[in-house]
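Hello,

Our lab assistant flagged a job as stuck in the queue for most of the afternoon. It eventually completed. Since we weren't sure the result was trustworthy after the delay, we are filing this so someone can double-check. Below is the sequence as submitted and the structure that was eventually returned. Let us know if re-running is recommended.
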Amino acid sequence: MSRPKSDDSSVLLVHAYLDGELDPANALSVAQQMGQEPALAAEAERVKELQKLIHDRLPREEAPPALRARIESSIGATRPRATSSWTQSWRALAASVVLAAAVGSGATWLVVDSQQQPTQVAELLVSDHIRALMAPEPVDVVSSDRHTVKPWFNGRIPNSPRVVDLAKDDFSLIGGRVDVVGRTPVSTLVYRRAKHLISLTAVPADSKSAFSGPASIDGYNIVRWTENGVSYWAISDLETKELEMFAQLFRTSRNEL
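-- returned structure --
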C-alpha cells in the first residue's frame, strides 16, 4: 500500500494519535482531521494494518531473567529476602493511592447492588458524571467519529452501544468511556452542547431500575428512556428542555451505527 500525499506534520500527528501520545485536545483535533481528509484517514488505516502485522508476526519477547540480576548488580541493589510488615503496609498504602487515582479518572467504576432503588442508581450515575467532569478527560476514547467510538467498545463490554451522530443538531460526540453498573461493564457516550457535557449511559433494562420521567439531582438533570431492552440515562447540567430534545433526537435519529 502506498503512502498518501499529505502534510508531513499532519501525518506525524496521525502516528502519534494511534500510539496514544497526544493530549486530549490534540487527539480530538486529529480525529476530526482524519474524518475530513481522506489522505489522513488512509494513512491511519495503513499504520493500523502495519501495527497488526507486527503484533501478529513479531510477538513480544520477555527479557531474560538474568538481565534483571545484572542490572541490580550493576547499581548495587539487592532483593529483600523476606517481606517485612513495613513493606506490607507500604504496599497497602500504594494500593489505596492507585484506587484513589482510578476514582479520579474518567473511567469510574460504579458497583450497584441489584436491590438498590432507582433513585440510588440515578444518584450514582450523577456522581459518575461529576467525577468524569473533574477528571483530566471525561472519556477513555477521544473521537468525534462514531466509526471510531463504536468499535472501541468491542471486547470491553458485552455489546457495542448504539452511536448516533447529532453534530448537525449541535450535539457533538466527543468520545466514550466504560463504566460498571451492577458489576456489568456498560457504555457511556459523551456529547457536548456549547460548554455543557452530556453523559449517556446504556444499561441493560431491568424492572428494578425503573425511573419515571426526567428528574434533577444536585443541579444535574436526568432524562431516562428504554428501548430494545436497553435503559438510556442522559445526565447533564443542560436545561431540562434541551436534554429532552437531545433524548428525542437520539431516539429518532437514523444517522447511527
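-- support follow-up --
The delay was a queue issue, not a problem with the job. The result is valid. Residues 1-5, 82-116 have pLDDT under 50 and may be disordered. The first helix runs from residue 8 to 18.
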